Structure formats: structure tokens, C-alpha cells
Amino acid sequence: MSDPSLPSIPDTPRPHSIWHNWVSLAGLVVAAGSLFAFLLLFALDLMGRDSGNPYLGILCYVVAPGFLFLGALLALAGAWHQRRRRVHIPGAHPASLAIDLSRPRDRRILLWFAFGSATFLLFTAVGSYQTYVYTESNQFCGEVCHTVMGPEYTAYHRSAHARVACVECHVGSGATSFVKAKVNGTHQLYGVLTGRYDRPIPAPVQNLRPASETCEQCHWPEKYSGSIERTFHRFLADDKNTPYTVRLLVNVGGGSPLNGPVGGIHWHMNVSNKIEYYATDVQRQVIPWVRVTAADGAVTVYRTAEFKGEPDAAKIRRMDCIDCHNRPAHRYATPNDAVDEAMDLGGIDA
After folding, report:
1. How far lies 341's CA from each of 57, 234, 321, 333, in Å?
2. What dihedral angle (degrees, nearest 10) is formed by the CA atoms of 324, 327, 333, 334?
3. Which of residues 266 and 128 earns the better pLDDT score?
4. Cα–Cα dist 188/159, whole Å
5. Residues 50 and 213: beta-carbon distance below 8 Å
6. Which one, 7, 21, 117, 300, has the greatest CB density within 10 A?
7. pLDDT, average across residues 110-127
């Protein structure tokens, strides 16, 4: 109890914090929402490492932190404004955010603020997830982000792999591919935003995933295919464009003795063989050196007479499916082939 004989000390109002303002509060809500989005996207990224979507990495590690910093800047801007107001206006104090629940107005404000915050967080969660799903769609890869991929996207729709999602071939799995996908996705984003990318897209793609992680998920070199017939419909260069047909019997063979004879084209994909080559040009068309390692460990090296010395070990490539099937999903027809196909299908009157 207080002593009545002592002089009473008037209560000095405690100055309100410079953070007590609506701008800072809005910034904190934005920061909280972006942090929530980051945690959600990080969880999706962590649980979905088998897909390793590089665009998810952009959303998680670039976009979400960007909004987090934006919210922090808003909060700081509101605090700075209140501090500046306190300095330049003597006796001015930041507006108090004290809420008295006994007042109907305060209850309504608090209710609407809670409802708005919950709605914002809900939309953040749903929007983040839907954005993640959309970045894995073929439309995003071919039309939205990669406008540069227009020709490849058109050819993709006419290929035998038109129902295979882009990310199934172009995004890797495992820790190493996971990191590469994140770095590559960020590099692609920078290239698209600045317009600094190759025109046209160079081929072959140097950092393309190995065929064992893409092609062999559906096709397997151990399978015995035997001989496969291919039919080509052509037209002669006479006045009537006389049609003629070319039928080829391709000796595909097989790559494993457990499923049939080992031979044909797929001898090169024999699981017991290891074929490596060294190309001196970017397009891998000039190959002066080839090394074959047989199942028994015997090594045979083939080289052209002009090639001297040893190849650069870092540029030696092991042969896989893509070395022969180098346009499995983005095959561009030559003018002659395109016209012949259009005439055969009735698109052009013969």
C-alpha cells in the first residue's frame, strides 16, 4: 500500500513504440505470409526431390524471400516514418494500436484484420502450391517462361513423346541433379529476363541428363527388338509428283544376352559394353577417337590417322541413347521431308 504522507508521483505515459503503426503491421503480415509460403514451398521441394523442379527452387529461394524482404522493408519504412515524425514534431507520439474489446469499433477492426490475415495466408498457401504445380506444366515450359523455346515446343507436340512432360526429361533426380537443376533454373530465369540466351538453342545440350535417367525409364536397352520395319512415303521430282514408298528393315537387335541375341544397332547399348568417344567439335560430328571396353575388360581404341596424342579426358563422352536418337522429342523436319509428309497426309495437293 502507498504511504499517504509521501507526495504522489504522477504517472508518466509510456511512449509508444515506433513499430506501432499500420504500415509496419502490414509489412509484418506480408513478411509472415512470405515466410509461410517459403516453409510450404521448402517442404514441397524437400519431399519432391525426385522431380527436382528448378522453378520450384526459384519460387522457394528467390520469390518468397523477395516478398519477405519487401515485408521487412515496409515494416522498417513505417517505423522510420514514425521516428521521423517524433523527431520533427515535438510532443508527437506514434499512434497507439491499443485495442479495447469493450468498444464495438475495435472489435470490428480486429475481426476484419484477423479475417484479412487468415485469408491472405490461405491465398498464399493455395497460390504457392498452384504456382508450383503450374511451373511443372508443359504450357509453362513452352509458352510462358521459355518464349525462346517456341520452335522446340511446336516440334514437341508433333513428336512421339508429346505426352511426356518436359520436366520428366529435363529435370534430374538425386542430390547432384537437384543442385544443378536449381542453379540452371536460376540461370535460365536471368537469361529470359535479360534476353541473353542463344538464338537458336544450341544442340546438343551440353548439360542434358544422361539417358539412363530419362530414356531408360520407359525404354530399356536390354530388350531384344530384332528387326523393325520403317516405311517412308516420298514423291518424285517429276511433273506429276509421282508417289513412291521406301521400306527399310532396321536391324535394331538387342543389348542383353538374357533376352535374345546381342547385336544390331543396340549392340552399342549392350550393358556389357562401354563405348566412349571424343569429339573435336561442339556438335559432336567430328569423332577422331573411340574406345571400346568389352565385358572381359579388353580395351580397343580406334583413331583416325590424323589424330595424334591423347584426347582430353574431361571431354570423353560415354555413348548413350541420345547420341543416335538426338532429337527424340524436338525433331525438326527438313523442307523436303515436311513437304512430302504434308502431301502424303493430304495437306498439300500433289
Report:
1. 42, 8, 26, 9
2. -50
3. 266
4. 24
5. no
6. 21
7. 75
Please choose, from the candidates 288, 347, 336, 346, the residue with its C-alpha nearest in 3D space to the C-alpha of residue 312: 288
Q: Is the pTM of this model over 0.85?
A: no
Amino acid identity for residue 56 in this structure: L
What local confidence, expressed as pLDDT, does residue 177 receive?
Answer: 59
Backbone phi and psi for residue 2, each to the nearest 5 degrees, phi listed first: -80, 150
HEC sequence for the chain: CCCCCCCCCCCCCCCCCCCCCHHHHHHHHHHHHHHHHHHHHHHHHHHCCCCCCHHHHHHHHHHHHHHHHHHHHHHHHHHHHHHHHHHHCCCCCCCCCCCCCCCHHHHHHHHHHHHHHHHHHHHHHHHHHHHHHHHCCHHHHHHHCCHHHHHHHHHHHCCCCCCCCHHHHHCCCHHHHHHHHHHHHHHHHHHHHHCCCCCCCCCCCCCCCCHHHCHHHCCCCCCCCEEEEEEEEEECCCCCCCEEEEEEEEEEEECCCCCCCCECHHHHHCCCCEEEEECCCCCCCCCCEEEEECCCCCEEEEECCCCCCCCCHHHEEECCHHHHCCCCCCCCCCHHHHHHHHHHCCCCCC
